[in-house]
Amino acid sequence: MERDVLIIGGGPAGLSAALVLSRARRAVTVVDAGEPRNATAEHMHGFFTRDGMPPQALLETGRTEVRGYGAEIIDGRVEHAAKDEEGAGFVVTLDDGTRLRSRQVLVTTGVTDVLPDVPGLRERWGREVQMCPYCHGWEVRDKRIVVLATSPKSLHQATLLSQWSPDVTLVTGEAPEGEEAARLDVRGIRVVEGEARRVVVEDDRVTGIELADGSVLGCDAVFLAPEFVPKAGPATDLGCAFGDDGFVEADETGRTSVPGVWAAGNVVNPMGQVIIAASAGAMAGAMINAELIEAEIASKLAA
Description:
Blueprint: E1 5-8, H1 12-23, E2 28-32, H2 55-68, E3 72-75, E4 78-83, E5 90-94, E6 99-102, E7 104-107, E8 111-114, H3 121-124, E9 129-130, H4 133-136, E10 145-148, H5 154-161, E11 168-172, H6 178-186, E12 190-193, E13 196-202, E14 205-211, E15 216-218, E16 221-224, E17 227-230, H7 233-237, E18 261-263, H8 274-302
Parallel strand pairs: 1-2, 1-7, 2-3, 7-18, 9-16, 10-11, 10-16, 11-12
Antiparallel strand pairs: 4-5, 5-6, 8-17, 13-14, 14-15
Catalytic activity: [thioredoxin]-dithiol + NADP(+) = [thioredoxin]-disulfide + NADPH + H(+)
InterPro entries: FAD/NAD-bd_sf, FAD/NAD-binding_dom, Ferredoxin-NADP_redctase_2
Pfam families: Pyr_redox_2
């Protein structure tokens, strides 16, 4: 198969790019490992016309749309990506040994959210344990919210959440001082010094956080800032440059440091919500098509 573009990752960014490219009459293949970042969330929010839609329903709808324009979707995992030594372009090898070739590659493999080693957090992740106020703040409005201070972003996270609830508590190993303390006080945020020992669950609902001293801080929702680890194996294989934050460097169009290799979505921007990732994929798809057209013009002129 003469393939124009191979998209590694079938989430919002990858499927959005596939839609743009397949509508541009490009031969497109999407390889998807089936590990969406928001798999444990019951609903997604902030995507107008799709607010409250289950994440899996969005992906199923997207797959149907791109297949309707002739794009191919393969369920599988890319084990290795490289420049094609047998010709121009690239070749990727899947976990079943299949080798796929294409003129251009778009990496939309996403990110892994690494949570603190606190029993119960992972089990409730995507339910009462969340990270994004804009994605899930409305659902816990006026409820008891605990923010675990897991990163420098945690104070900012707590101040944001005070917009949705007057009952926000920051659990931290060391209480903020000076201006930071004053900012929390202005927003009515309580500070508790301590370390989370476990998540307390009753009747399949989070009811509190047990601290290291044995006390239990009652709550209905827990927010934290996880460690973001990009799933950037294909970009690493292809020699793409990475930023100091460990994420793939790409310009606003998705262009990486390697000609013909593009990246979009959370593998570039871990803070991007679904609608932002989809937008980045659409932009990358349009620019890839434009670059292919320029290459085709140059080839004809040189003949």
